[in-house]
Structure formats: C-alpha cells, structure tokens
Amino acid sequence: MQFKHIIGQHEIKQQLIQSVKQGRISHAQLFLGGEGVGALPLAVAYSQYINCANATDDDSCGICSSCVKFEKLIHPDLHFTFPTVAIDKKKLSNDFIQEWRAAFIENPYIGELQWLLKLDEEGKKQGNITADECRDIFKKIGLKAFEAKFKTVIIWLPEYLSQEGNILLKLLEEPPVGTLIILVAQDADKVIATILSRTQLIKIPRLSDDDISKVLVEKYQQPERDAETLARVAEGNMALAISLVNAGRSDYFELFQSWMRLCFNARKDIENLTKWVEDCVKTGREFLKSFMGYCMHMMRASFIHKYGDNKMLRLSNQETDFVTKFSPFIHSNNLPELTKAFNDASFHIERNADLKITFLELSLYIGSQLKKAA
Ligand SMILES: [Zn+2]
After folding, report:
1. Hey, which of 21, 211, 281, 334 has its CA 20 to 30 A from 61?
2. Domains recognised in the chain with CATH numbers
C-alpha cells in the first residue's frame, strides 16, 4: 500500500513521513479514526514507507523487494492481529491470514462488520481477540526481524481487547528495539485505558465529501450527482460509501418512505409493520447498517429543509418531495433522540442483536418521537 493509493488525508501522510525522516518513530502508536476514514491502510502504508529501500520525500517506491511483499501483505516482518469469530476459540489471526489479505487487497477500507461477515456469512457469531492471540503477539515480536528495518505488528480494532489486553502492557511500554506496534482503533472510549495511556495517539480525521465523491466517480463509475449525494450520506466513511454503491440507492429511499409511514401508524397497524420488519431484516446486517446511515441522513435533511438550505442537501426529486412533507415532524425536540436511536440500532446490528426485535422496538420508538410536539 503506497500513500498515493490512500484517499485524501494529506496532512496525516505528511506528518507520518516527517516522523520517519526525522527519526522520531514512536514504537507504540494508536491510529484513531472512525470507520472507513482509512486508518488501517495508513498504518500499512506507513510501515511500508519505513521499510522501503528507495523511499522518496512523499512515498514508498512500490517496486523494491520490501514494497512488493508489503503490497501483498506477505512481508515476513509484517504481522496482523484482528478480531476473528469464535467458532474455535483456539484459532488465531494467523489462521485467517489468507482471508485477511484477500479482504484488505479487495477493499482496504473494509469495515468491522464487513470483515466479520467474511468469516461468518450468517453474522451470528461474535468477533473476538483472545488472550491466546495476545500471547501470540509476544511470540511474533520476539522473532528476530527477517529483513525489515522495523518489524511491525498492526492490531486492528483493539476495542475487542478487554482485560486480556493487559497481557500486552509490558510490550507497549518497552518494545524490543526495531519493532513498531500500531493499534488501529475507531472508538477511544472502548479501548482499555491502560493501553491508551501507553501509546502515542495519531488522530485520523474523517474524509471530506469531495474526496469520497471523487473516488465514487473515478473508481465506482457513479454519475457525479449521485456520487455527491452518496458522499453526503456516508459522512466521511468510505466503507459506508462502498456499501451504499453496492446496495443501489433507490432501494433505500423506497424502504425508508414505506417504513416512516408504518412507524406513524405503528400502534394501529402492527401487522403490516411486523411484515415490513420481517422482510427488511432478510436483507442482511451489512445492508441494514448502511440503511441506518441513510435514515440518519434523511432525518437531518428533513430538519435542515425548514431552514431553506436545500441546495446543500443534494436530494433527488423523489427525496425532495418526501422531505418537504416529512419536515414538519422533525424538530429540535426529537432530532437528537432519533439520531441516537439510529446510532444505537446500528451498534446492535453490528453486535449480533436479534434484528427483528431491534427493528420492531425502533419502529415503535420512531412512531412515538414523530408524534412529539415541536
Ligand atoms: Zn520500496
């Protein structure tokens, strides 16, 4: 992974490159950024840059023997730890390394749920990083570097480490010479404090709408107007933007429109609502998670609509018609509650909650919020 293949993030790239040029590579770093902002590809590009034989002022060469191995994630001094599904608690990240390489090469912006679904298609099992895995990290670090300047361990989603994470503390405090440990996290509140305090924090900002929209046009053949709209919905999350492209956006609108009607009448027409929920949950967790993103976007659009800044919304004609009628029901007395409800639902979708119950409860809650006075 070369820096030039990473979307946006020019300042972070420069900051990382400068740290290498000035010999200030901190041995334990925490790359912190929301889903789909590129923290994981940045971690890979950074360690590729450090180990490149012919690095220039702004990138690794991409062709030296170290780079060639990094591009395929097969460099013997590059190690990964990531959540795996607990089919067999004895299994380690290494047992899934083929799947991991293929998934990263296909989409370096892969989200947590997308990854777990690759290991467990039905999405019924909980992801985990085990104590055995932590001990394995010690083993990997203990190996002498084969050929790299810096042996690197990238730990993706340390949020999955609870008390077993304390096994790593000594390693983070005093890593052996010539090792680099990069933790790539999305939510600092969910990383155990003892780990947080022992790493140097690098905050990765969200991507700009323009950065995302440009990629959607160039790489995903989206018409410019659609790309701009998708980028707004994705809110800086490239993983979500790709999910939205794959799902096809017209589905979202129709689904959203019929759902809101049913939520309004939830108590009177529970039968049709239940049917809607049953059909909806069949679409699968990944679609549902991106659908939550779309719903939040439409809620905000309905709120903003009242203040006349419609150009900013970049809605389709259908959506504009809907938002015009829906707007009186969204106001400062329910927007925060609704946004939180969609966020919570999104979290539950990811963490294997019962989808039918989640959506039925959410529908009833939305129904009650929509009836709240402005
Ligand atoms: Zn190189």
Report:
1. 211
2. 3-203 (3.40.50.300), 248-370 (1.20.272)
Query: How far, in Å, from the CA of 45 to the mean position of ligand 1?
Result: 11
d(CA 374, CA 366): 15
Ligand 1 center–CA 80 separation, angstroms: 20
* d(CA 294, ligand 1 centre) in Å: 40
Tell me how far the alpha carbon of residue 176 lies from the centroid of ligand 1, in angstroms. 24
Residue 305 pLDDT grade (very low, low, confident, very high; cuts 50, 70, 90): confident
Segment 272-276 long-range contacts (CB within 8 Å, at least 24 positions apart) = 273/360, 273/363, 274/360
Q: 207: which 2 tokens?
A: 């991507």
In the reported structure, the alpha carbon of residue 63 is separated from the centroid of ligand 1 by a whole-number distance in angstroms of 5
Predicted TM-score (pTM) of the model is 0.85
Residue 331 is given by DSSP the state -
CA-CA-CA-CA torsion sign (284, 289, 291, 295):
positive
Exposed / middle / buried, residue 331 (Cβ in 10 Å: 0-12, 13-18, 19+): middle
- Report CA torsion sign: 298, 299, 300, 303: positive
Hey, what amino acid is at 63? Answer: I
Q: Which two tokens stand for residue 255?
A: 């689904």
Question: In this structure, are strands 200-203 and 78-81 parallel, antiparallel, or unpaired?
Answer: unpaired
* CA gap 353, 96 in Å, rounded: 25
Q: Which residues are close to ligand 1, an ion, with C-beta < 5 A?
A: 52, 60-61, 64, 67
* pLDDT digit string, tens, across residues 142-156: 777 778 788 999 999
Amino acid at 360: L
